[in-house]
Amino acid sequence: MIGRFLPWAPGPAAWNMAVDEALLTSYLQGTAPVTLRFYGWDPSALSLGYLQAPLSAARQARCRRAGVEWVRRPTGGRAVFHQHEITYALVTGEREGFSGSVLADYQRIGSGLQRGFAHLGLSLEMVSGLRRGKGTRSE
Question: Which H or E run includes 20?
Fold first, then answer.
């Protein structure tokens, strides 16, 4: 598989999501290869899942006062706060051997990231997310 790597760069929320969407669109049109992109968020941002309700006017105002941008992701899931982190986007599909199963593909991608960071002398651990409502780690 021949692909491309876009090294880490920080950007504003709308820019980050526009780049991710452009990468996906060009891949689906067959004009771009598999792409792995690492990026950061500057300023801090709240990203909402594709199907989440938009922020209320009051919450938008709170974000503005705190200097936090907000944006809708082209993917699902719940809201994610981004600050001082490395985010990645992997644009790929079934023709590269991905199954379409979210959990199986997540584990495959996570294993690849673990191996890659191990070459840099860093250890990564895959963990489950937070449970809804309680804010405690699920097992």
Answer: helix 13-28
